[in-house]
Amino acid sequence: MSTRVTAAPADQLTVRRSNLSLVLSHLRDAGPRSRAKIAADTGLNKATVSSLVAELVERGLVGEGEVERVGSVGRPGQTVGLAPGRVVGVGVEVNADFVDVTALDLTHEVVLSRRAPADMRALGERGAIALVVRCLQEALATLSAGGSSVVGVTVAVPALVDSGRGRVALAPNLGWTGTELAAQLDAALGLGDVRVAVDNDANLGAIAEHALGVGRDVDDLVYLAGEVGVGCGVIVGGELLRGSSGFTGEIGHAPLNPRPEVCGCGRVGCWETQVGLGVLLAGCARGPDDPVLDGDADIDVRLDEINARAAAGDVATLETLQRVGIALGLGASVLVTIVNPRALVLGGYFAVLEEHLRPFVVHTLLERVVAPDAGGVEVRASRLGFTAASRGGAVVALQQVFADPTRVPVPA
């Protein structure tokens, strides 16, 4: 006796979710287009596409656009595209001297951007997390008042992060060890179904550059985050490289400094002791009261002052920039030799001071990388500044909607 197996209703729902994801992701990648064009591009039939688009419109994810006129015979179709503003992902960067919050909508446009300067290590773990909570509460209230619905929060930390558990294993520049950050933020914010995730800041910076920055046109890139700590995010074949334990990219603590200088992690000789932000600021300072050392001042203001001093020919500033640029090139040459990326993206303060650092980086790469022409790598400066990690967090928060649009409920 044979038993006939029929598709369960759940399977039909799975197919429906998959097709909704296909259409929404296609609109993200290809831009607004007519229903007929979506059907032709995706291989779905026109009736199915019309039904899927209707549901996406109902969920507030897609909106009607202009009439598409291509000169063909027949009635012109109306374009549909991602709906701006309503659905947002929130990214937060927690760094040694600031908290940055960025919200992006489905089109990756910035809906909200705020930064709070602070000496996070001096605040201690409890005080620092309390500041993050306050910044998030204020941002979420502003977004809600503006009619935006938050679908996820991703927090970037300069640390070894167990992203699966949302746990900070070790953050030397913050003084955190074994911090259950996601759980603490969940408890403090009470966001219900809105997931709080935690990841390494350089990883999220790399994701941001690949999704919406200077690395959009390449699928193999190395992103270097120049902040108090130094890390890198690696994209290979369009995917983030995490490694077996998720700790890929901790280049700042590689023993590349021949001088036995003590790092914030307690070890000696780390690359960070040559190219970290603190080294740069100390080298450019004219004394202990120099405003570039003021941790309560916004970092962009302090770096603008260093750019101004370099333009004016200040000897100490120029010598420091040369020393840091050469050391930056040496470490980057190791990464380029191992990964062979198409682009090396300078982020954080490396990008702000790119005019002065880049010549030394390029020269050192050409001198040190064994492959001809440094393996063809292009050195590019991020245009996302110190918001790269928080923007990457927002991009990751939004990915769950593109993976499953039904996570966004139909408005009552």
From TrEMBL:
Q: What is this protein called?
A: ROK family protein
Span of domain HTH marR-type? 22-62
Q: Which domain of life is it from?
A: Bacteria
Q: Which family does it belong to?
A: Belongs to the ROK (NagC/XylR) family.
UniProt signal peptide: none
Any Pfam family the entry gives:
MarR_2
Q: PANTHER family recorded for this chain?
A: BIFUNCTIONAL UDP-N-ACETYLGLUCOSAMINE 2-EPIMERASE_N-ACETYLMANNOSAMINE KINASE (PTHR18964:SF149), ROK (REPRESSOR, ORF, KINASE) FAMILY (PTHR18964)
Q: Which organism is it from?
A: Aquipuribacter hungaricus
